[in-house]
Design brief:
This protein is mainly alpha-helical. It is built from 20 helices and 4 strands. The protein has a single domain, classed as MFS general substrate transporter like domains (Growth Hormone, Chain: A, Up-down Bundle), CATH 1.20.1250.20. The two termini are about 30 Å apart.
Length: about 450
């Protein structure tokens, strides 16, 4: 018996309620994206060390999501299959979000109370650990959340459901990014970095708690003749083999994701540093004296606020076009809409790399938001056509490898490349060509668009 036939169509109100938890998840993730650079740089992180710290995301994504996805497929509890992971991940991540910006103070307290002389980089080590915990817990929640869609939403509404997730990603990111700049503009109040992380922690926990209370899961004991318990017990490499045997198109979708996420993370990881150091001309703060840091403090703060505004624009556009993209993809096919959206992101990256004018950069971030809305929704909709019932969590977990894996390339090779591309800015100070990340991102996104044109969709070719 096909459980999918028992699923009732979602109304607009139900979709909005369904995606609220992802709003909180993205709120926390956006805060981590925007502010992790200034926090870690102040603790002594060079561009290359900063990239290595960002390895937390891909490594936890490649390890945690497949494991948690498989576990959630076979979990049978009074709270459902997915909800224990959603709420558990949110609570632990929120604790780490609170501790992260206070890493330097924590290191100082340890040194004072133990009397042990610690390395100057101890605060950076604590910050790195907190980032790893944050990223791991976001992955713990994210995979099962995506797997909820085929659990509770009818097949014909999967593209629309993923578009609502994209809408939540855009809105959560807009609110997270715009709050501090808005408070400064409207009330002349500069929200501190620790306060912004506390705000993110509350948003993540409360939004995910609401989702866990209001979303009711279907029984997970038997689906389409395959036991969820049995599917989750399949060894990883066997699961990986079966994943690619779903269809020849699955491999193409994975390659598309691979190149897409190299390009996307070139912007996500390095944009704040680009805004601070390239757009606002702040030299590298790594290893400089406190006097130099104080001299450039205002410019660094302005660059960070500008980055927040740009991310707000980027995600506002994502929010505005998320539902239209879902509607257009239902009419014309996921592939066509996705290719056009990615190409808009390519154009935006090239222009930002060449022109560092504030208004141009902000406008191009808005254009890139079209591609981001598509990336957050349509690849998952394309893949969902090939998912067998009872294996949703495992498939989404394995698929995440092709999102997380490319980030290793960005966190290591791209970060190393930028660290080598330095130049003198006077007074024995250095800066780096952060804009180079956009050129690398544009090339890989163009490759992703080329691969996407080769994907054959069910009922659209």
């Amino acid at each position: 018996m096909d459980n999918n036939n028992e699923l009732k169509k979602f109304s607009t109100a139900q979709f909005l309620n369904f995606c609220l938890g992802f709003f909180g998840l993205q709120f926390a993730w956006q805060m981590r994206i925007i502010l992790s650079g200034p926090v870690t740089e102040s603790l002594g992180a060079s561009p290359f060390l900063y990239g290595l710290i960002w390895l937390a995301g891909p490594f936890t994504g490649m390890v945690v999501q497949p494991i948690v996805g498989a576990l959630s497929d076979k979990t049978v509890s009074p709270f459902g299959r997915r909800r224990p992971y959603l709420l558990g991940g949110a609570i632990i991540a929120s604790l780490a979000l609170w501790l992260f910006p206070n890493s330097g103070s924590i290191a100082d307290c340890i040194q004072v109370h133990t009397g042990v002389s610690l390395s100057p980089l101890t605060g950076l080590l604590i910050a790195a650990i907190m980032i790893w915990i944050i990223d791991a817990c976001i992955n713990i929640a994210q995979g099962p959340y995506r797997a909820l869609i085929p659990d509770v939403v009818p097949q014909e509404q999967h593209s629309l459901a993923n578009s609502y997730i994209s809408l939540a990603i855009g809105l959560g990111s807009v609110v997270a990014a715009a709050t501090a700049p808005f408070l400064k503009w409207a009330f002349h109040y500069q929200m501190s970095i620790p306060s912004q992380f506390i705000m993110a922690a509350l948003a993540f926990t409360l939004a995910m708690l609401w989702t866990c209370i209001t979303i009711k899961e279907k029984s997970s004991k038997k689906e389409d003749g395959i036991s969820a318990e049995k599917s989750a017990d399949i060894p990883f490499f066997q699961s990986l083999k079966e994943f690619f045997l779903l269809s020849p198109e699955v491999g193409k979708i994975c390659w598309m994701q691979f190149f897409t996420w190299i390009g996307t993370m070139c912007m996500m990881i390095f944009f704040t540093q680009f805004a601070v150091h390239t757009v606002f001309g702040v030299p590298s703060m790594t290893g400089v004296s406190q006097e130099v840091q104080n001299r450039f403090m205002e410019a660094q703060l302005n660059g960070t606020n500008f980055s927040s505004v740009c991310f707000a624009i980027f995600n506002l556009v994502c929010f505005l076009v998320a539902i239209p993209i879902g509607i257009l993809s239902a009419k014309y096919g996921n592939k066509k809409v996705h290719v056009i959206s990615i190409l808009s992101m390519v154009a935006a990256f090239v222009v930002m790399g060449l022109c560092h004018n504030l208004f141009v950069v902000a406008a191009m971030m808005g254009l890139a938001g079209i591609g981001w809305a598509s990336i957050c929704a349509l690849p998952f909709a394309m893949l969902s056509q090939y998912i067998k019932k009872g294996t949703e969590g495992s498939v989404m977990g394995i698929f995440n490898i092709f999102i997380a894996g490319p980030q290793v390339f960005v966190c290591t090779l791209v970060a190393w490349f930028i660290s080598k591309c330095d130049f003198a800015v006077g007074e024995n100070l250095l800066n780096h060509h952060w804009e180079y990340s956009f050129f690398i991102g544009a090339i890989t996104l163009l490759l992703a668009a080329m691969v996407a044109t080769k994907v054959k969709e069910i009922g659209k070719n």
